[in-house]
Design goal:
Distance between the termini: 38 Å
Helix content: 10-25%
Oligomer: single chain
Shape: globular
Strand order of the largest sheet: 7-8-9-3-10-11
Radius of gyration: 24 Å
Strand content: 25-35%
Bound molecules: adenosine-5'-triphosphate
Length: 329
């Protein structure tokens, strides 16, 4: 449904997209995740047609919409977009906002259907200015979905909504998008948001797509150390292969192993060689910092019913789970 083939976009000296490639299949929800300024919004704007790339090729639904000598205007791409600030028309009521891109004869029934889908039945005659942030977001989403686009682009859909409501709305959004069966690309810098909503995540940095895969793949087998750290707390532990079973690795080869903090178990033991030197209560979990005998610091995340006081001597045990290795830096 969407393909970026080595897309580059510059703004003066800034390279906002640097040879970025990405494929999104029909019906998929893909999140563009990355730090501020990495090019996420630019990627959406290029997909929608609000920016023309300087190099590479963009396809929507199998048709080249931008590339050498080709540029298809946004309104001819059958792509819906929800902007960060929703960009609702303040002088039109909710129903007219939703109906904006629809042929006249389709308006009534489709608008009612969408109002119901996004949970705003009965609010069609309200003015957008009288709605809460969450309700405005739903109107913007309904407006984007109204003409049944194959592809919908969402730019940080929750930036204007408080944290508590966000979690609730994520579930709601997922339901609406799946009900419409639409392909979605959404931008976020919040990994939890990406994990909960996306089938696949494209992790970006400095205009490049560094890794694209299922949330589990990014978490457990990140492409490099930076990716590892961006998607979650990471222990990079020096390691040596004691007995080999995976192709290509020599016994004795050394490198680092990524161990996620929930795999690090702690057992209180007055004779233990490690010490708990930090403790942060997070509610359902507690994040510990543990100093090993050789000075190495490890992060451990344990359920909060396992209480290990600060300063405890502990024995550290690795639980079974997925780890990944990197060559020595
Ligand atoms: P954020 O999460 O902060 O919204 P982002 O990942 O969406 O960031 P972009 O908005 O795509 O990042 O910006 C990528 C880079 O391109 C940034 O350095 C930004 O300053 C620059 N940039 C984006 N749009 C323009 C523009 N119209 N003119 C000049 N520079 C721009």
């Amino acid at each position: 449904m969407l393909r970026f083939d080595s897309v580059t976009k510059r703004f003066g000296p800034t390279v906002a997209l640097d040879d970025a490639s990405l494929e999104v299949a029909a019906g998929e929800v893909v999140a563009l995740l990355g730090p501020s300024g990495c090019g996420k919004t630019t990627a959406l704007r290029v997909a929608a047609g609000f920016e023309r790339p300087d190099g590479g090729r963009v396809e929507v639904d199998g048709r080249v919409v931008a590339g050498p000598g080709v540029y298809v205007a946004p309104e001819r791409r059958a792509v819906g977009m929800v902007f960060q600030d929703y960009a609702l028309f303040p002088h039109l009521d909710v129903a007219s906002n939703i109906a904006f891109g629809l042929p006249r004869r389709e308006r009534g029934s489709r608008v009612d259907e969408l109002l119901e889908l996004v949970g705003l039945t009965g609010l069609g005659s309200r003015s957008p200015g009288t709605l809460s942030g969450g309700q405005q977001q739903r109107v913007a989403l309904a407006r984007a979905l109204a003409p049944r686009p194959g592809l919908v682009l969402l730019d940080e859909p929750w930036s204007a909504i408080d944290a508590l409501l966000r979690a609730e709305m994520r579930g709601e959004l997922a339901r609406v998008l799946r009900a419409e069966g639409v392909t979605v690309v959404l931008v976020t810098h919040d990994r939890e948001e990406a994990f909960t909503l996306a089938d696949r995540i494209a992790l970006m940095r400095d205009g490049e797509v560094l890794q694209c895969g299922r949330p589990e793949d990014l978490y457990f087998t990140p492409a490099d150390r930076w990716c590892a750290r961006f998607v979650g707390a990471s222990n990079l532990v020096p390691a040596q292969l004691a007995s080999g079973f995976e192709g290509g690795e020599r016994v004795g080869a050394s490198g680092e192993v990524l161990v996620r903090p929930e795999l690090v178990g702690l057992e209180i033991d007055p004779g233990g060689a490690a010490e708990v030197v930090g403790r942060t209560f997070l509610g359902h979990d507690v994040l510990y910092r543990v100093r090993l005998a050789d000075g190495t610091l490890l992060a451990a995340q344990r359920p909060s019913n396992e209480e290990v006081p600060l300063g405890s001597r502990v024995r550290v045990r690795l639980h079974e789970g997925r780890v990944t290795s990197f060559d020595r830096p």
